[in-house]
Predict the structure.
Amino acid sequence: MKVSKKVWLIIGGIILIVALVGLYTVYSGQAGVRGNLNERLDRAQTLLPGLTKQKQDLEDQVAHAQSLLEASQAQFPESVESIEYDDDLFEIADDCNVDITKITASPPTGRTVGAVTYSVSSFVVTVSGSIENILEFINAIRIGEGFQLPWSAEVTSINIDVAGSAATINLNIYGYKG
């Protein structure tokens, strides 16, 4: 059977129409995707200046917080030793039946003797109680009785108020730095 030219033209036309419909479908789908991407790009470009400013503000806040931290660290030097010494001083005071009414510590400094470096903190301790108990407290500090840490104290001055049953004690505490 022989197919005429007219049938071949009709078949060719149908194939061409199917191909054009397929291309149109693909193109319109891609145009929709492109439109969505353009909308998202426009939104992102709109948000970008605000987000950039917000990022800069947050970086400024971090820089400010860092400078405040550094200023605080400079103002309050690392002195874990002072806190630990305070704990021992309060425990010794409790054992001696005196009350610590005030305690002031200076930032620790380093003092080298030979090849050994000691951390030295100066304290002013005000205690109240009976004169016997105050003297017992001073002696306990002087001989190192009740110290939980490897440190020793040097009592540099004592001012006892006999009438008020109180004493102000200046001391240096030496701790081994290693």
User: Anything to note?
Assistant: Residues 80-176 form a domain with the Alpha-Beta Plaits fold (CATH 3.30.70.60). The first strand starts at residue 99 and ends at 105. The chain has two domains: 1-76, 80-176. Residues 5-75 form the longest helix (71 residues).
